[in-house]
């Protein structure tokens, strides 16, 4: 940085002087030109990917795919003190798990790389030098102690803390003198003039006079790393980003970014700020809530399509709120002009319904259907032979993991048997893991139930068991059987047991059959 500031005080007399507007980055830093739609998802790897980030990524992805464009993952890792080990890999892993992989990313590479901001420091230094030369930026020599005093004084007077722009008025001689003592000062951007108005694609026309309420912001820290404001402007320009779809919390900062674009002589992209995704009660999603991270949902057996479905159904951007949409349907139906300014309220208690494939909205009422599509995500997978084979393999692994040495008969792992289990129980489970819960353990192991427990269920246990065994002996006369048993014969027996059960966790006829045959 010392060299950079010396060049400012003694500018070179060559055509290559860096006061000109910067073009798109070439060679190793990549270049991309053209009118194609290019959007980016730019999280900070200071935590794992959560539902709010997934929603922002999804809207960028479906907007890009709808317009035949590119979806870029850029990791904003400039705050090196807050990086979480494994977070960068987790973000890209979870995007791939969700079915919305980036076209360009740190892992995949691409023409506009590198895609880690910590590897793009030369670009930020180049932009900063141009701003210094044009007078749009200046070095700041204020000590941390002075800045802290300014903050405390403002808070004592019940004012918003802001920098007083003291170093803005230093002369060249004063700057040179201070550089001798502090060769690596932070650089601030000079906020001046009227902020340009801009038309947000969601919130309409906006203008925020940041210079009247804020002090000049730091754009390059003394360690050579940029702050968010400079980095996002420089990277969006050099990566050829055409549209910036990001959270509404950045709406006010956009005027500051537009001032940077103007000072650098660059054409800004179009902006669309997305309303927040909130809890059902209107409170903010918090990273401290462990159950909002995608890893939690993946481990619990929720399907990616169910998550994409619920976070779009609770918001806007579509002609109607409809459950059961697949990713191709989301892409086809998405319309950015339909995104409203209202926050989306997420009710995670409904997620099992989305995952299972049958919601209360689809249940018939007074003999008629409400008209919602009865094809949600788990049932859709079951109905597809290829996907069903994959479910069989996953369930076999789950059974092996859950029961292991408890499996008295390993024939229960037979693919045909497991497939029939899935077909039978698909309308009764929310995710595949349910089939290895204690409620369904009888499907895989012989249940150990005492006579006292059976007596508490029904006084007719012996009668029902004998009738079931008698029915099984006559199964050869009933070719249309399910799971090896004539299900139609079990229905009246099941109702006898169910209606006499004093507890919710009643045994079904299959359990009694296994008990009686021991």
- The total number of structural domains is 4
- Strand count, sense and closure of the main sheet? 3 strands, antiparallel
The CATH topology annotation of the largest domain reads as Rossmann fold
Biggest sheet strand order reads 3-4-7
* SSE sequence, one letter per element: HEHEHHEHHEEEEHEHEEHHHEHHHHHHHH
* Uncertain stretches: 6-34, 358-375, 482-491, 493-510, 512-518
Fourth-tier CATH superfamily name of the largest domain: HUPs
Overall CATH class of the largest domain = Alpha Beta
The dominant shape is elongated
What gyration radius follows from the Cα positions, in whole Å? Answer: 31 Å
Helix-strand makeup class: mainly alpha
Helix content: 25-40%
Bin the strand percentage: 5-15%
Count, helices: 19
The CATH architecture of the largest domain can be named as 3-Layer(aba) Sandwich
What is the element layout, followed by pairings?
Layout: H1 2-9, E1 38-41, H2 51-66, E2 70-73, H3 87-97, H4 121-134, E3 137-139, H5 144-156, H6 172-181, E4 187-189, E5 198-200, E6 204-206, E7 218-220, H7 228-238, E8 243-247, H8 254-264, E9 270-274, E10 277-279, H9 294-299, H10 304-313, H11 327-333, E11 344-346, H12 351-356, H13 377-383, H14 385-403, H15 415-425, H16 451-457, H17 461-473, H18 487-500, H19 509-516
Parallel strand pairs: 1-2, 8-9, 10-11
Antiparallel strand pairs: 3-4, 4-7, 5-6
Question: Could you provide a short overview of the structure?
Answer:
With 518 residues, the protein is mainly α.
